[in-house]
Each structure stands twice: as structure tokens, then as C-alpha cells.
Design goal:
Elements: E1 2-3, H1 13-19, H2 29-46, E2 52-55, H3 59-70, E3 75-80, H4 83-94, E4 98-103, H5 112-119, E5 124-130, E6 132-133, E7 138-139, H6 142-149, E8 156-160, H7 172-175, E9 179-183, E10 195-199, H8 201-208, H9 219-226, H10 237-253, H11 255-275, E11 279-280, E12 291-295, H12 302-313, E13 315-316, E14 328-332, H13 339-354
Parallel strand pairs: 1-13, 3-4, 3-5, 5-8, 8-9
Antiparallel strand pairs: 2-10, 6-7, 9-10, 11-12, 12-14
The protein binds pyridoxal-5'-phosphate.
């Protein structure tokens, strides 16, 4: 079996071997060398001079944590364009925050102007944006959004890059992103269970002024511990070994080459979609580079296609997220996929469609 769903994605043997290394004490010198040793490469990838924190949780832990750390008595604007970003509004409300939803139709991007219209009303502490909405295959224009955020310096920008991190450049410091977070099992092609994040000085000042941060996701705890190359609680050490191995891969390939590889594999999928007279769920210019959400305009039996490629080739694809089930299907080119491996997937799909 091979995973071509947009998360979790296929994990390489090398990454798994690193994951399975013998454990060490999380307060030991060996652990500090491990975490300290990857810090500067993490900062390079995050395009930040701020420390990068490791949370033993899935991305949602930090997504909830960011709201709890940065939103006080003010409002939070949750930008919604698909299943994950819609959920963030619900999560903010469950944290007891005064949460406002900026909803666009699933498949459409979030635009800077829409954020400006809301923030103009005043009283906001933070905005949440999912850079690459995985359920709909739509990528919102971060630079445009960051530009608008500069008009509202009192508001923090929280960005989820779970399925776009290391796929396209995301210049955290240059864009003025206050929290940039990602998870292990999508763009980074590691086993699920680790989240990575960094926070600006403004975000850390805000956090320090806010009560009700809790403990497990308290950014101030992460910061204190990181100064000694440690995490607040016992982390999944196995994940950090896997991360060290993945960083080796990323820097051996080169970050720009990695971006170019994703662009090339994504373009292969796009060609395939066009060749088959299928359509894209997201509009031109706002399509994800790490997965493709294909609109089923031809009335294909998506369930049969999903079952077919699984049976014939052991390839697992996704038949549409939630309310998009059957109306779309999603093909991932995240992680370690190459033009050759994506080509194999597309040939398998061809065989199933003509069978
Ligand atoms: C998968 C995903 C999440 C949630 O990740 P978990 O690891 O399940 O917490 C959040 N945001 C995006 C964009 C995702 O693709």
C-alpha cells in the first residue's frame, strides 16, 4: 500500500528508521544536542530568527494553543474556506473566545480585502488563516493578507502551514507572521503526532499578557524550555529523531530544489486533470501546490476509482473530504514524491478510468 491521500502521507524507510532509534532521556545532554542541533535548520525553514518549538501533539494542539495564547478579551477572526479553517472557528468558540467567522465558499481563497473589511470594525486580537486549505485544495495569498495586516499592527496573524510548509516559501519574519505552525504528517512526510511552530516577539509579548493559556500549550513554557534546548513536557523523542533525518534530506536536496520538485509534480497532476477533461475545485492562481482537489464534473464513480487504484496498485487516494465526497477527489504530491512516483499514480488512475 502507498498513501497518496493528503495526509498522512507516505513515510520513507529512512525516516522510519530514524523514528525507531533507541530512546534517550528528555533532560539529558544527548537530547539537548539533538534539539539544539536541529534548531538553526528549523529556523532557516521557517525563515525566522525566532526559536522553533516542538509540540508533541497533532497540529490542532498548536492551533488551539495559538488562540488561547494570543486572544484575550478581544475578538479573533477565523478565516474559513474549507473543513479545517471552518473548524478553527468552532475551536475558538470552544476556548471561550469571541470568535468571528469570515466565511467564503469552499474552494475559494481568502482575500486581503475581506480581512480588511472585518478588521476595520476594530476590537480584534488575532486572525487565523489556513495557508493551504487541504480539504479544498485552495491556497490563499499570504503576501496579500500580510500586507493588509500591516494596517492593523495590534492584531496578530496566526498561519497554519500544515500542508504547504517546505512546499512553497513562507517567509515568516518578512511577512510579519506572528505564529507559523505546521504538523508532521503532511508536507513533512513524517509519522503523525508532532507539531512545529514559531512565534514572533509580538506574539510572545501578547502571550505573556494573557491569562488562561493553560499549561500544555503555553507558549511561555515552550520559550523557557527552548532556551535550554528542551521541551516543557516529555516529547515524542522518536519524532524528533525522524525530524532530524528529514531535515538532512531537505537540506541535502536544497530548499529551492524541494520547492521546484513540488511545482513539477503538481504540474504533472494538473496536466493529467486537463487531459481527462476534468476541472479544478479551486480557481486558477489559488490552487494548492501540494495536492490537487479535482472536481468530478464528468460524473465519474469516485468510490469505484478509489477502490480500483487500491486494488490494482495499492495506491490510496482520497474520495473527497466531508461534504465534497464524490463531488471531488484529491491527489497528493506532498512529501517525498517525485515526477516518477506521481507518474506511476497517474498511470494507475488512467488504467482504472479506461478499464
Ligand atoms: C490536517 C490538517 C490539520 C489538522 O492536522 P491534525 O494533525 O489532524 O491536527 C490542520 N490544518 C490543515 C491545513 C490540515 O491539512
Amino acid at each position: 500500500m502507498k498513501l497518496f491521500i493528503p495526509g498522512p502521507v507516505q513515510v520513507s524507510e529512512k525516516t522510519f528508521a530514524a523514528f525507531c532509534k533507541p530512546l534517550i532521556g528528555h533532560r539529558s545532554g544527548d537530547f539537548k544536542s539533538l534539539y539544539g542541533g536541529i534548531q538553526s535548520r528549523l529556523q532557516t525553514l521557517f525563515e525566522t530568527t525566532q526559536p522553533v518549538f516542538l509540540s508533541t501533539s497533532s497540529a490542532w494542539g498548536v492551533m488551539e494553543g495559538a488562540v488561547r495564547n494570543l486572544v484575550g478579551s478581544g475578538k479573533v477572526l477565523n478565516c474559513m474556506c474549507g473543513a479545517f479553517s471552518d473548524k478553527w472557528l468552532d475551536v475558538s468558540k470552544r476556548c471561550g473566545k469571541d470568535a468571528v467567522g469570515l466565511q467564503v465558499e469552499w474552494g475559494q481563497p481568502i482575500r486581503g480585502e475581506q480581512i480588511r473589511e472585518h478588521l476595520k470594525q476594530g476590537g480584534f486580537d488575532a486572525v487565523t488563516v489556513i495557508h493551504n486549505e487541504t480539504s479544498a485544495g485552495v491556497m490563499s495569498p499570504l503576501a496579500e493578507i500580510a500586507e493588509v495586516m500591516r494596517e492593523f499592527p495590534e492584531v496578530c496573524l496566526i498561519v497554519d502551514s500544515v500542508s504547504s510548509f517546505s512546499v512553497v516559501p513562507i517567509a515568516m519574519d518578512a511577512l510579519g507572521i506572528d505564529v507559523l505552525l505546521t504538523g508532521s504528517q503532511k508536507a513533512l512526510a513524517m509519522p503523525p503526532g508532532l507539531a512545529l511552530f514559531s512565534a514572533s516577539e509580538k506574539a510572545m509579548r501578547r502571550a505573556a499578557s494573557i491569562s488562561g493559556r493553560g499549561y500544555y500549550f503555553d507558549f511561555i513554557e515552550f520559550q523557557k524550555n527552548q532556551l535550554e534546548d528542551m521541551t516543557p513536557s516529555t516529547p515524542s523523542i522518536s519524532h524528533i529523531y525522524a525530524l532530524e533525518s528529514k531535515l538532512e534530506d531537505i537540506f541535502a536536496e536544497g530548499i529551492e530544489a524541494r520547492h521546484a520538485r513540488h511545482a513539477a509534480t503538481n504540474a504533472l497532476v494538473h496536466d493529467w486533470v486537463r487531459r481527462h477533461g476534468l476541472e479544478f475545485f479551486a480557481p486558477e492562481g489559488y490552487r494548492s501546490k501540494s495536492l490537487t482537489c479535482v472536481s468530478n464534473n464528468r460524473g465519474i464513480d469516485v468510490a469505484a476509482l478509489v477502490a480500483g487504484v487500491k486494488r490494482s496498485h495499492g495506491f490510496i487516494i482520497d474520495g473527497g473530504y466531508g461534504k465534497l465526497k464524490g463531488k471531488t477527489f484529491r491527489l497528493s504530491n506532498m512529501g517525498d514524491e517525485t515526477e516518477a512516483s506521481v507518474g506511476e499514480l497517474l498511470s494507475a488512475l488512467d488504467a482504472c478510468l479506461t478499464a
